[in-house]
Amino acid sequence: MKLAAVGDNCMDVYDNTGNAYPGGNPVNVAVYFVRLGGQASYTGVVGTDKYGALMKERIAGKGVDVSHIRFEEGNTAITHVELADGERVFGDYEEGVLADFKLTEEEKDFLCTHDIIVTGLWGNVHDDLAELKARGIKIAFDAATRPGDPAAVTAIPSVDYLFFATDDGDTPELRETMKAIKARGPRLVIVTLGEKGSIAYDGTDFTAFGIIPCNVVDTMGAGDSFIAGFLRGILEEKEVQECMRMGAANSSVTLEYNGAW
Question: For the whole prediction, is pTM greater than 0.70?
Answer without folding.
Answer: yes
